[in-house]
Each structure stands twice: as C-alpha cells, then as structure tokens.
Specification:
With 193 residues, the first copy, chain A, is an all-alpha fold. In chain A, 81% of the residues lie in helices and 0% in strands. Chain A has a single domain, classed as Tetracycline Repressor, domain 2 (Orthogonal Bundle). The radius of gyration of chain A is 19 Å and the shape is elongated. The interface between A and B is large, with 58 and 58 residues. The structure holds a DNA duplex (30 and 30 nucleotides).
DNA sequence: GAGTCAAGCTTACCCGGGGTAGGTTACTTG
DNA sequence: CAAGTAACCTACCCCGGGTAAGCTTGACTC
C-alpha cells in the first residue's frame, strides 16, 4: 500500500481507538495490528505516539474550520452569520463525535506539548474566524473587545456542544437558539420576561 | 510523619510536578523522591498514579467551588450576583494557576476514566451553582433554558480565564466586564453602538 | 518487661508498552 | 540486470507504573 493511503488508514484507525479507549489505554501495537501492519511502520510515518495523535487532531480541526467558515458565506447581518456559524459547529460536533471527542479529551500536556499546541492552535483558529467575522460587521470595536468576545463564543460553544450531544432531546438548532439568546440577546432579557 | 499530613504533602508535591511537566512526563519515582519517601508509600495512600491526580483535582475543585459560592452571598440582583461570581472565578484562576491548569490540562480519558469523571464533576458542580443562582432570580424560566445558560457561562468562563491569565494587560475585573457585556447585555448591543 | 499489633517505611523486583536497530522483499529506473 | 528505494518485518532495549515481602518503631496489653 502506498504511503499516503496507509497514512490515511492509520489516522482513521488511531482516531477510533484513541476516542474509544483514551490515549493512554490505546497501545501502538493494537493500532498497528488493526492496520494489518507492524509497529515500526507507524513510527516511520508519524515519529511517535504523540505524533500520531497530533495528526488525528489536525485532520479534525481542518474539517471543523472548513465547515464553519463555509457556513457563514453570504450572511447579510452579523446575527445571521453568528447563528449560521453556531448551527454548523453543533452539527459538526454531532456528526463527527469521535473527532470532536478527540479534540476535547486529549487536552494539553497530558499527551505531550505537541498535542497541547495542536489543540490550542485549533481553538485559536476558531477564535480568529470569529474575530474576522465580528470585525467585518463591527469596525468600531476595539481589538481586545473583539478577541474577548471571540474567546467567549468559542468557550461557550465547546461546553454547550458537550451538553447537547449528551442529550437526545436537544437539536443543533435548539442549541444554537440557546446560545443566541444568551450571547446575542443577553441573559438580562430573561429578567424582564 | 502521620498519614494525613503525608497525604497533604504528597498532593502538594504532585500538583506542582504534574502542572510543571504534564501528567505523562511526571514519574512517580520523582514525586516520591521529592516527598523524601519511597514509591510504594504513594501507592499505599492513593492506589495509582491516576488516583493521585484525582486527589489533586478534587482539592482544586473544592477550593474553587468554595470561592465562587461564597462570593455571591448577599447579592441583591442577578446582575450583581453574576458579576461577583465571575470576578471571584477569575481571581481564583489567576492566584491558583497551578491548580487551575491541572483542572484544564488533565482532560478526560487521557489520564484515565476516574480523572475524566473528576473533572467533569467539577464542571457540573459549577453548572449547578450557576443554575441555583439563576433559578433563584428567574423562577419563570424552564430548567432546560437554565441549564443551557449555565453551561454557556461555565464554558465562556473557562476559555476566557485561559485568555486573560496569558495577558498581563487584562485584570480579573476587566475580564468580568467583557463577559458581562457579552453574556448579560448581549453582543447585539455592539452593533447598535 | 516480654509479647503483639499496627503504622510508616524500605528494597528489590515484575512486565507492559513506547521506541529502535537492522534486515528483507519487491518494485521502479537507468 | 544492477542499483536504489519504498514498504515492510523480527527482535530487541529500557523506562516507568505497579507490587511482593519484609523491616523498624512506638504504643498498648498482660
């Protein structure tokens, strides 16, 4: 099997095993066996166990960035853009649960500095997408304010997606609704209602 | 040295080493040596490496829950309660950086299921504190709505604290301000400004 | 004061799994 | 067909989590 194809297979298998058993409990021998290949092949292509994890995360975050950026194309108002981005995000986390749990669960230094950096880079990517969006609609707002808002959106999305994926009585659309109410309209509106 | 005291010392040393080098890179032999004790003592008291991590996390989350619940006592309006809670939270993450980075970095299944559960329990604790607060001020609002709002607040706090701790030009108060603007007033207000 | 029990502690070891050295096969290319 | 290289293997090293078995010391009983 040619290298490129084998690498894709390895990433796919690793994603599944990492997500299932957790990074620590997954052994490289097992992954190799499931690929029908011996362990040194993985080391040849990915360098280390952490390297393999990084490859998995990178693939997931590339897909996520693609899905969210594409979703906001052509939105007329900031409200519409935000809502569309949220729905796309929640749909992604729902349909790509394995990939998403990898990005969440393999936090930082537990797997190693490279994996930590990859995950943080993924978040930062989302932050920058959000900032670009806000900046386009809100030219008057300061950069600090924009970044704070973007971080808030990313954090809220992350947490809410975990919550809604665990409940089958809430759809991606409803999750986006809740988030729009809180972030866009503001929680203060609940008091007056 | 009596057991209780030794346990406290072990947790303190472990917290530091885990936070410094990361969970994987920290070896039990090193931790034992820094305690002036041999490895089996730690296993006697905490059962496993993961058990030791769980003890560290539990201590940190207990402190955090204490700080945030105490901060909102006596608040007259929901706005004041929310703001006070946020400030207390950001101050905690700033002054207890090691403990906080442990809670964030040792995500989920990477260390093992018990550690994952402990961290999720910590988040859920915060969610419930928030829900109780909201419920007190907003008796009309549905439980689903309350929980969604609480999840959003927790997620936004987590992310924003990481951001603000990394920037020395932002104070806990200002971080709380940004969050109040986004969550309480709503981002829509930026458009009209 | 000898006997006993437990708490706190040790040395010396096992073994799974990440990572590597060095070689084999088989296909391309000049 | 010789040379090179891509894809792959077996066999091994060794660190570090985890354990077995026993030592020391002090308190408490008879």
């Amino acid at each position: 099997m040619p290298r490129a194809e084998r690498e894709r297979q390895m990433v796919a298998v690793a994603e599944e095993i990492f997500a299932d058993r957790g990074y620590l409990a997954a052994s490289m021998d097992d992954i190799a066996e499931r690929c029908g290949v011996s362990k040194p092949m993985i080391y040849e292509y990915f360098g280390s166990k952490e390297g393999l994890l990084v490859a998995c995360i990178r693939e997931a975050r590339t897909e996520l960035a693609k899905a969210t950026t594409e979703s906001v194309i052509g939105a007329a108002t900031p409200e519409e853009a935000l809502r569309r981005g949220l729905v796309a995000f929640f749909e992604f986390t729902d349909t790509h649960r394995r990939a998403w749990s990898l990005m969440l669960r393999s936090e930082a230094a537990v797997a190693g500095p490279a994996a930590a950096a990859e995950i943080e880079a993924g978040r930062q990517e989302q932050v920058e997408i959000d900032m670009a969006l806000f900046r386009a609609f809100l030219p008057e707002t300061s950069e600090v304010e924009l970044e704070a808002a973007a971080q808030i959106v990313v954090g809220a999305c992350e947490r809410l997606s975990l919550w809604y994926v665990g409940r089958d009585d809430v759809t991606a659309d409803q999750a986006a609704d809740h988030l729009m109410l809180a972030l866009w309209t503001g929680l203060s509106s609940l008091v007056r209602a």
